[in-house]
Here is the input.
Amino acid sequence: MLANMGNEIYRKIEQVKLLPLYTATDLTYLDRLEDILVKNNVRFIEVTFRSDLAIEAIKKLSQSNELIVGAGTVRTQKEAKDAIENGAKFVVSPAVVPEVIEYCIEQDVPVFPGTATPGDIQRAMEYGIKVVKFFPADIYGGLKAINALSGPFYDVKFLPTGGINEENFMEYVQNDHIVAVGGSFIISESLIKKDDGETADKALKSLIDKINLQK
Here is the structure.
C-alpha cells in the first residue's frame, strides 16, 4: 500500500527536483512564500518542526491547495499526527523513527525517514519504503556515499539534505539515484524578509533554470 499511495508524490518531487525546507518564525511571510513557489512552479514545501509555529504554518499553507505541504524534522508520533490533521501530505524525519513511520503508513501518508547507514536503509525498506532521506549528506559522504550505498540498495532512491547548496546541488540532481534535493538554500524566511521576496524569487528562478538546462 505504501508504495502505491506514495507514487504520485514521489513522481512529482522527482519532476521538480527541489524540496524546500522552511522554518517559520513569522506567519506574515507565508503568503509571499506561496506566491514565489507557485510562480516558479515549485509546488512543494517542507515545513520543519524547528519552531513553535510549524503547525500553524502547515495549516495556513495547506488552505489554498496550491502547494503540496509536508512536515519536516518530525521525531514523534504526536508531531506526525498533528501535522497530518492540519494538512500535511507527507512527513520527513531526521532518522528512522518506527512510531512515525507506522503512523504514516496507517494514515496512507508518504514518509521519508532519515538514513545515513546501510542499517538505516534496511530498516526503512522493511516498512516497504523505497525513497529515503539521506542526512546529513555532507557529513556522511555525499555523492560518493550515495553511489556506494546504491550498489546493494539498487532499488532505493535518495533525497539528500544537509550541506547541499546552490554551488553543488546540480551534482546531486544529475545523479540517477537521487529523486530530489532538499534544503533551506532553496528558499528561506530570512531571504524573503530581506526585500519582500525579490531576491528569494530570483534565487529560486536561477535554481530552476539550471535544472531545466540539463533536462
Notes: The chain has one domain: 2-207. Residues 1-5 have pLDDT under 50 and may be disordered. The longest strand covers residues 18-22. The chain is about 45% helix and 15% strand.
